[in-house]
Amino acid sequence: IPEAKIQEDSMLIPGTNGGKMSKSANNVINIFLDDKALRKQIMSIETDSTPLEDPKNPETCNAFAIYKLLASESEIEIMKANYLGGNYGYGHAKQALFELIIEKFKTEREKYNYYMNNLPEVDALLKVGAEKAALVANGVLGRVREKLGFE
Hints:
Radius of gyration: 23 Å
Shape: elongated
Number of helices: 6
Number of strands: 0
Largest sheet: none
Structural class: mainly alpha
Mean pLDDT: 94
Low-confidence stretches: none
Distance between the termini: 45 Å
């Protein structure tokens, strides 16, 4: 009998409201938005009302949970120290997350914007892909028809 293998470190990706990230729940971060809209989306991440000067618990913060998924170990440790040290607001953390996303996905965002502004090029690439797929598919369909006696 097969035994279940459960990955111990698997987890849900947190959304902007702390629940599971989901488009239908509208709690996602769309990295392909323009800078202004992306920043607005990140700044809307739900946080508590701990005053700026007070230390904060990084383990209960939605912005930190998302930041941890993208940042290096050293960046995570710096952010954690900022939270625990006080005089570091959630706005600072969200700005750091925004800057991290902009930097981490710079190439992907550039490509996305390029292709969204050059849709005829996308259509041409799709046509080439469809032609390649048709060659393979027609060969397979030909063999299937032959085996079934339709040719």
